[in-house]
Design goal:
The chain has three helices and seven strands; from the N terminus they run βααββββββα. It is of the alpha+beta class and about 150 residues long. The chain has a seven-stranded antiparallel beta sheet.
Amino acid sequence: MSLVGKLSAEILIVAPHHEHHGVWSRRPHHFSNVSPGKIKKVHLHEGDWGSVGSIIEWHYVIDGKDQVVKEVVESIDEENKAITFKVIEGDLLKEYKSFMGIVQYIPKGEATWVHWTFEYEKLNKDIPHPFKLFEYTIHLSEELDDHLVQA
């Protein structure tokens, strides 16, 4: 059984893709307003919002448990509307040797697809694949879309 894994999914959004991309890349601290039941706080630990190399700390709740993760913004590709985050500290690293999240916005005519990918390596074969966190992240993107449409 391989310890390395990859999860990918796409969802359709209604709000303009540049607004979604802007929240994930430059204003992730707004997620505590978008989904206060899931995201308790997001703060900039180092660097500047919207800059490669910035370190962001997320305090969130999943399955009723408080979690913390610290990630570095590995890349922001404005042309391809993609952002890559690499986990460097926190609860996820108790089960995963490495963990990356990539989000990309793909405009298709009047619609936009949000493509999420998780790439990870589990610490051992008994660690589950991060399906719950992946679903959580997809739902967070849907909640962001609802929030932006209502704004």
